[in-house]
Amino acid sequence: MEISTSELKRVTLFDIRGRIDSTNAAELGDALNAAIDAGRTQIVLDLSNVEYMSSAGLRELVTALKKVKRGTGDLRLASPSPRVLEVLELAGLDSIFEIYSNQVEAVGSF
Fold it and tell me: Domains in the chain and their CATH numbers?
């Protein structure tokens, strides 16, 4: 898994590539927590290049969402791959995350 971060005016954009599974989900959680702890609570995750996400990855997303929502922030998802979208739907998480078809829409939604 590769994570690249961009600081935009109001939003922190995470571009994630590869597989998110039990071996590296904590790395994603650490990156999200570092941004949140630094006061970056408006976050977009671009999941277009994530081919697989396990329950460990989903847990990190939900944990980060809860953390940003304690304040005035939000965590939104951009263009999840079909397989990741299916996992989100099966877990019932498509109803708690705002999911956008592309990065521009997701960033612009803040």
Answer: 2-108 (3.30.750.24)
Its pTM stands at 0.95
Q: Measuring CA to CA, how many Å separate 3 from each of 26, 49, 96?
A: 12, 11, 23
How far is it, in rounded angstroms, from Cα 48 to Cα 101?
9
Q: Which two tokens stand for residue 31?
A: 């990156």
Strands 2-7 and 98-100: unpaired
Q: Residues 47-105: pLDDT tens digits?
A: 999 999 999 999 999 999 999 999 889 999 999 999 999 999 999 999 999 999 999 99
The residue behind tokens 């997303």 is 61
**Model confidence over 8-61: pLDDT tens digits?**
989 999 999 999 999 999 999 999 999 999 999 999 999 999 999 999 999 999
Q: What is the DSSP string of 52-97?
A: EE-HHHHHHHHHHHHHHHTTT-EEEEE---HHHHHHHHHTTGGGTS
